[in-house]
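Data deposition worksheet. Section B asks for the primary sequence of the deposited chain exactly as it was used as input, without tags or linkers unless they were present during the calculation. Section C holds the resulting structure in token form. Section D is free text for depositor observations; keep each observation to a single sentence. Incomplete worksheets are returned to the depositor.
Section A, Depositor: J.P.
Section B:
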Amino acid sequence: MIPLSLGEIASVVGGRVEGDGTVTVTAPAVLDSRQAERGSLFVAFDGEHVDGHDYAVQAGRAGAVAVLGSRPTALPTVVVEDAKAALQALAAHVVARLREGLTVVGVTGSRGKTSTKDLLAAVLSSAAPTVATVGSLNNELGVPLTMLRSDAATRFLVLEMGVRRIGDIAKLTGLVAPDVGVVLNVGQAHLSHLRSRAAIARAKGELVQGLAPGGTAVLCADDPRVAAMRSLTDRPALTFGRAEHADVRLLDVALDRLARPSFTLRTTVARAPVALPLVGAHQALNAAAAAAVGLAAGVSLDAAAAALPTVSLSKWRLELRDLVGGATLLDDSFNADPDSTRAALDALAAIEGKRRIAVLGEMLELGDGSEAEHRAVGEYAAVRADVVVAVGARTLADGAGERAVALADNAAAVQWLRGRLAAGDVVLVKASRGARLDEVAGALVSGSRDVLVDRPMTDR
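Section C:
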């Protein structure tokens, strides 16, 4: 973050200073007092269950020098009526001051946003200092927090943008209009809120409509709903995908024994081989998206191809790990929808092993089609796994038929796995975030017999 005194911050957000207004914030804003560092601004919310103002002292001990909140605290505080609106206003102000020389990239899609954002960070940071969303902080709070991590040295700002309702992305692009906006796909995530894929496409299309003057849309040529977004803007567009007409075309995808893809990226003037350290054929398409954004931002195809293998994915996204007893864990427990679950099951089926076990939980926010989607995923899983452990997902178990083991909760799943995992087994763990199947993977890491060695796979 650029250095700002409390007086300057109060002027930007329309608040008043309680305490020393000369105190200067020099480090990023945080919502969690434990994440504060020397010079941070702690943003306090009076929530339904927790009042952040009560943690101001703890934030100060961690290094925060001031608070942005709705009432005075023990630290110097900018007091405002609406802390969220103030945080957004401050973020917009900071990026506006840095706008010359800063390229802003927005990333959205029903699945693959975070992996693509991580691939993009690898590509762009190989060219110049880059700030990118941490994890999946992609909402009305996460985006401004990422914006506030920018400083005078930043040349690329990568913002993952999520959506639950029409207008969500429009509000985010209202804070900062991206120079490049990439739309990956239109899937089934958040159907319970948006009701139809047409509505999801409309919500995702707001990124294309919100581009900065002279901005570039980067669109998936393989998804008709995304390709149709070309009509939403008169700005330039680049496409990526397997389609013959794609500007960045994905060719010759092959998987190694751990389901890690090698492939070729081709444009009209260049081609480059890539081997990713990530699991799943679908990651090749995400890499093509990242390369296309790189081209729009001035990074050559060769440079992007060289940078892609250096990627480090956010937590719980198809993390492949060894088990002490000789089995393997594929931890994809961060979130799930039908499309991403099928992709994970494809990866499970492609990994060499004696027995493949899919531990699957509920996929949330699917709306009226939830039961049918769970049954269909169960059927799909039964073809790609030897055993389908359905945790709190009875309909999914019904779809998997004779290969299903229906268990009530995570504790039962942990007990079942600990008693049955053997050398050569490959076990996938995947569900929506609300199912918290990361607890299952975490229990295996805890130190009991047949536990995980907490290190990534290195053999190629």
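Section D:
Residues 12 and 191 are 37 Å apart (CA to CA).
Confidence is low (pLDDT under 50) at residues 447-460.
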